[in-house]
Write a structure and sequence with these properties.
By secondary structure, this protein is mainly α. It is 92% helix and 0% strand.
Amino acid sequence: MGRCVTPPESASVALELERLRGVVSTGFAEIRGELRSALQRTDTAEEDIRQLESRVGALERRVWTASGAAAAVGGTAGWLAQALGG
């Protein structure tokens, strides 16, 4: 069957397990820090997108307003030209 672990080997195994536990804990801490940083960048990007969407919407409204005004002015000018020349 299996081989028995002697007390010196047992201490060596325990020491190695403790070292591995530290390595794993450090690795998880680094990963948590990277995730926190990535989430912060994502939040910033989402806010930038919301602001850009708002600005684009405002520009679209201005374009439609200007287009309507230009059409009204053009129509009035055409009517006036026809009325005066007519």
